[in-house]
Amino acid sequence: MSDLRLQDFSYFPGCSLATTAGESNRSMMQAARILGLNLIELQDWNCCGSSSAQTMCKNLSLAMAARNLSLAPPGRPLVAMCPRCLHYLRSTQKCLKSDPETREALEEKWGRPIYTDLEIIHFMEVLSRYGLDRLKANARRSLKGLRYVPYYGCTLFRPPRLAKERYFQGEMENILGALGAQAVPDALSYRCCGSFLSATDPEIVTPLVQEIIGSAAAAKADCLVTACAMCQLNLEMRNTSRAKIPIFHFSEILALALGAEDYEEWFVRHLVDPRLVIRKLAQAA
Amino acid sequence: MYTAQPLRQDVVTPDLGKIGKPGPSLAAEVREQSGTDFYRCYQCRSCGNGCPFVQAMDYTPNQVLRLVQFGMRQEVLTCKTIWVCVGCHTCSSQCPMSIDIAAVMDTLRLMAVEEGVAIGKPNIIDFHEEVLRSLEKYGRAHKLGIMLGYKRQTGRWLKDLDVGLKMLAKRKLDLIPSRVRDVKEITELFQCYWRETA
Ligand code: SF4
Ligand code: SF4
């Protein structure tokens, strides 16, 4: 990636990262800046549709995701961090590719072309293209000694509709491993966090979150690192067990390793205080 | 290591007396709309065993497929299971016959909404509608607004007040919604939804 233009990406934040998970967004932007990656926020983006639109009306969910695609200029990949957003953007692109009539109708409605060949990738893919060796060379803090559970939740690699697309399983271990952290394999890494049930039926979700956290505690992990901001929030919010293990969003740990200075500011937004873990890291260094 | 819990034993047994009459088959309809061939299902129950939320369901996912195959439209469209399902795809990824059960659930939910049947888990559809109200207004999800609206609707404010306050204190809930500038483009999209079903 010596070509400078290759470092430009359109970036789709999505509702969670723009609000409840502001710290994840902030840390990701930091990390990107340190690495010289240019994430250009998609102008006037809207919600990807989420499971609510998907549930209530097919046309609506398609159109909402499609509007975002119509805002993305050609020539640079569209990057999302939220696995759900990624999933909806990709399925919609696939749909529009096979249904030119709908695509043309939407293009006409908005007066903008939709580039169905646009590459839509996850932020982890950006990092793996950047190169793990280069990433390592940019690290300012070693994550050595940090035992974490890579928590993918459900969406990042599962949907069979996208079975032929790129998988991200193992990517987190590659990246954080290169930065010195040690993945703890024997915990519930792929157990669903409860998604919207966390809001509608907490009594269903609480025991399940307990099991996830319990599995991490039993594996003697220092923390869980999630790929998704909603998972991060659900796991923190619905954990009522005594084991209070901090839950980080992937981008926070990344930014920490890359030497971001303002992490104290975003760490205080956590519902479970993560400072113990950080102190442990500092002592090991 | 985590050990799997046995499949729950107390689920409802479908009343086979209500097997659908021959005619345009529900199964064919669902297969067409979901793009999933679930005729291959041999009831191994991996999907039911693997679903994290099976405890909160009235039929296990494999039973839902059976209901569809039997043409028991009313039972399946009004059941709780299709609403409790969050679409995590655990079932789909574990099915030995590569049946995308989650896609079937998606289809059944849409059919339930379109046909206007009694919803098996009304609080969940309330929530989705609250989210859509926010999306229609701002183009993005305003979580505080959604929480307030939703809790008001189902009168469960107190139940979750503690968590809500914690989130407010941590500034995880923004008071002012972030919004799309060209919100007209968004509201237009909702015509297909509200106008037809509301
Ligand atoms: S896992 Fe597949 S084959 Fe087994 S019961 Fe479920 S749908 Fe049927
Ligand atoms: S997709 Fe639905 S039915 Fe399948 S495992 Fe997840 S919640 Fe259960």
Plain-language structure description:
The complex is a heterodimer of chains A (about 280) and B (about 200). Chain A is α/β, with parallel strands linked by helices and about 280 residues long. Chain A folds into two domains: about 5-120, Glutathione S-transferase Yfyf (Class Pi), Chain A, domain 2, CATH 1.20.1050.140; about 140-285, Rossmann fold. In chain A, about 50% of the residues lie in helices and about 10% in strands. In chain A, the strands form two sheets. In chain A, strands 2-1-3-4 form a four-stranded parallel β-sheet. In chain A, helix 9 (about 170-180) links the parallel strand 5 (about 145-150) and strand 6 (about 180-185). Chain A is globular. The two termini of chain A are about 30 Å apart. In chain A, about 55% of the residues are buried. Residues about 1-5 of chain A have low confidence and may be disordered. Chain B is mainly alpha-helical. Chain B folds into two domains: about 20-115, no CATH class; about 120-195, no CATH class. Chain B has twelve helices and no strands. In chain B, helix 8 runs antiparallel to helix 11. The longest helix of chain B has 17 residues, at about 120-140. The radius of gyration of chain B is 19 Å and the shape is elongated. Chain B starts with about 25 loop residues before the first helix and ends with a helix. At the A-B interface, helix 3, helix 4, helix 10 and helix 11 of A face helix 6, helix 7, helix 8, helix 9 and helix 10 of B. The structure holds iron/sulfur cluster (2 copies). One iron/sulfur cluster binds near residues 41, 43, 46, 62 and 101 of chain B. One iron/sulfur cluster (SF4) binds near residues 86, 87, 88 and 89 of chain B.
What global shape of chain B is seen? elongated
Low-confidence stretches of chain B: none
Terminal CA distance of chain A reads 31 Å
Mean of all residue-level pLDDT scores of chain A: 81
The total tally of domains of chain B equals 2
Could you give a short account of the major beta sheet of chain B? none
